[in-house]
Amino acid sequence: MLICRWRIVLSSLLFMASLHAAEPATQSLPEPLTLEYALSLVANDHPRLLDSKHLLDSFVAKRRQAEAADDYSANLTGRARWIDLPVTAITPGINEDHALGISIKKPLLDSGTTGHQLQAAQFYEEAAEQNYQLAIQQRRELIMRRYFDVLLADLQFFRENERMATSYISLDRAKARQKLGQSEEMEILKLDRAYQKVRRDRYHFEGQQRLTRARLAEALNRPGRLSSSLNKPALTELERKRPEVEKLQHWARQHNPQLKALRSQVAASTASVEAARARDGFNVDAEISYNSYTFQPSARENWRAGFNFTYPLSRGGRSDADVALAMSQKYRAQSRLQDAENNMDQAILDTWMQLGTLRIERQEMQALNDYEGFYLDRTRTLYEQGLQTTLGDAMIRITDAEWRLSRTEFDMAMLWVKLEGLVGLPYRQFPQEENK
Question: pTM of the predicted model, to two decimals?
Answer without folding.
Answer: 0.78
